[in-house]
Amino acid sequence: MIIGEAVRLGHADANPLMSMKLKRDKAAKKPELTDDEISEIREALKDEPEWMQTSFDISLHTGCRLRETRIPVNCIDFDENKITFPTPKGGEDRAFSVPMPTALRPLLERIRKSKQKFTVEFPFQPSRRWQQFFIKIKKTHLTFHCLRVTYVNRLRRVGVPREAAMRLVNHASELIHQIYQREKVEDVAQWRDAVQFPA
User: Fold this and answer.
1) pTM of the full predicted structure?
2) What's the rounded Cα separation, in Å, for the pair 18 and 89?
3) Are strands 76-77 and 96-99 parallel, antiparallel or unpaired?
4) How far is CA 89 from the centre of its chain?
5) At a CB cut-off of 8 Å and minimum separation 6, what does 98 contact?
6) Dist CA 2 CA 8 (whole Å)
7) Average pLDDT rounded to a whole number, residues 11-24
8) 35-182 — its CATH code?
9) Which residue has the higher pLDDT, 69 or 196?
10) Could you tell me the pLDDT band of residue 43, with boundaries at 50, 70 and 90?
């Protein structure tokens, strides 16, 4: 990529690496969290800073990304029971609102009463802090983004229509949404005999 940019800018005549057909490694699929893993993480988070506990709960119940868990308190509407994410991935033009999950309301009310301006205040490199946390609890296969994967899959399992699920997690396209789905055999077992043919 760097040599390609040098060619584009006229600093190099050609890119000899093009003929090598180097391909970018595919990113590993992020797994879905199990109920046991969620319980273990919650228990381990009791010994961690409050911002980690808060960001975990917000993402678990909304499927939002780590940076999106820092919600301005004035974007939480307790009367209309909704949360607005003002600067999601893609910028302010992609701002969206979701119904406030009932399980989050007590946490968000506590934050409002504490007069905080945001739901969390991040330290330097919060995603690195999460990576260190997962190493510490010996769950190196997990990342914070697994919460989003988990939320998307649980929406599907309880029968939330794809369009509604996409709206809840602010996915712009069905292709992106499908990348998050982790169908298991048992998820589709009920349709094993859905198609019938003459004997």
Assistant:
1) 0.76
2) 31
3) unpaired
4) 11
5) 62, 82, 83, 85, 168
6) 10
7) 77
8) 1.10.443.10
9) 69
10) very high
Q: Which residue in the block uniquely carries the two structure tokens 């190099």?
A: 12
Token pair in block for residue 154 = 């649980």
Predicted local confidence at residue 117, as pLDDT: 96
Q: Which residues contact 160 (CB under 8 A, 6 or more apart)?
A: 168
Closest CA to 34 of 130, 129, 157: 157
Q: What is the pLDDT of residues 62-107, one digit of tens each?
A: 999 999 999 999 999 999 999 999 887 777 877 888 889 999 999 9
What was the pLDDT predicted at 175? 52
| Token pair belonging to 99 | 């119904």
127/182: higher pLDDT: 127
3-state helix, strand, coil in the chain (%, to 5): 50, 5, 45
CA distance 85 to 47: 28
Phi, psi of 28 (to 5 degrees): -65, 145
Cβ 181 vs Cβ 153: under 8 Å: yes
Q: Which residues pair with 77 in a beta bridge?
A: 82
Helix or strand or coil: residue 99? strand
Element of type H or E holding 85: strand 82-85
